[in-house]
Amino acid sequence: MERLNKLLGGLFGVACGDALGATLEFLSQEEARKTYGYLKDIIGRGHWKLKPGQVTDDTMMTLCVAGGILENPECPIESIGNRFVKWYNSDPKDIGMTCELAIKKYIKTSNWKEASFYVHHISKGRTAGNGTIMRCIPVALYYRDYSKMIDISRLQSKMTHYDEKAADACVLYNTVIYKYLNEETKEGTITEAIGSSEDYKYVMNMKKEELIPSGYVVDTLRCALWCFMNNSNLEDTICEAANLCGDADTVAAVAGGIAGTYYGYDSIPERWKNKIEVKDKLMSIGEKINSTYN
Ligand SMILES: [Mg+2]
């Protein structure tokens, strides 16, 4: 498969998971079924009263990470951070608490390390949320040097989330994305990336009822990996992830990033792709990243 097809698949997979899942965010499965049935379309509404195709912080922060990397690939953190601040100042209606506190602190201190340590302190060590895995896919799509890719995956996580579990999850996820971009096998890639990790090694033995679609990054990544491995196409993967409910937009965005890179842009239903409000931006970012390969 063409690299551009995979690149765009990853970016649009995140956006489609986000836009579809956002309708179900904060609902229990029971509440969601009553109101929406088993949701398979991007219809907006939900807690954030979205328009169909409107995306949330997951996709908007992904665009910030991609833009920062393209501006300064060698040391992208400040460029990424400037975009976080600009987005924060645009008064987005949805922003995760850890990201919000860290960006606010950065505005006062101009120091991301200090900002994320401060948030870790005031939140009593609870900074292993899914706010960095949801935005980190451009790192794996851009860097060809594997160790540079791992470094930047960690560094972008540490800007807002001090906890190592958040950075570890970004590394696992981006390792999978990187390998799929290079045409490696579906199951072997996941097994190898999980390795002997205590947090993820039993994920394929879990029953669906044991999945917890929470904002804790370990729960989120387990849900995404499980849905990807237990479905054979992108549409079913994203629908199953979103319909777990809870932190549905991020669970589906992470599952969508993996499935999109593996199955490619062509596998994403037209009725989803056409609705995404930032589709032109995603397309242009994918093409810019792709052009650096030539
Ligand atoms: Mg969101």
UniProtKB/TrEMBL annotation:
One of its GO terms (molecular function) is metal ion binding. SUPFAM superfamilies: ADP-ribosylglycohydrolase. It comes from the Bacteria. Keywords: Glycosidase, Hydrolase, Magnesium, Metal-binding. Its cofactor is Mg(2+). Mg(2+) binds at T56, D57, D58, D247, D249, T250. It holds the Pfam family ADP_ribosyl_GH. Its EC number is 3.2.2.24. The keyword Metal-binding applies. Binds 2 magnesium ions per subunit. It is an enzyme of class 3 (hydrolase). This is ADP-ribosyl-[dinitrogen reductase] glycohydrolase. InterPro entries: ADP-ribosylglycohydrolase, Ribosyl_crysJ1, Ribosyl_crysJ1_sf.
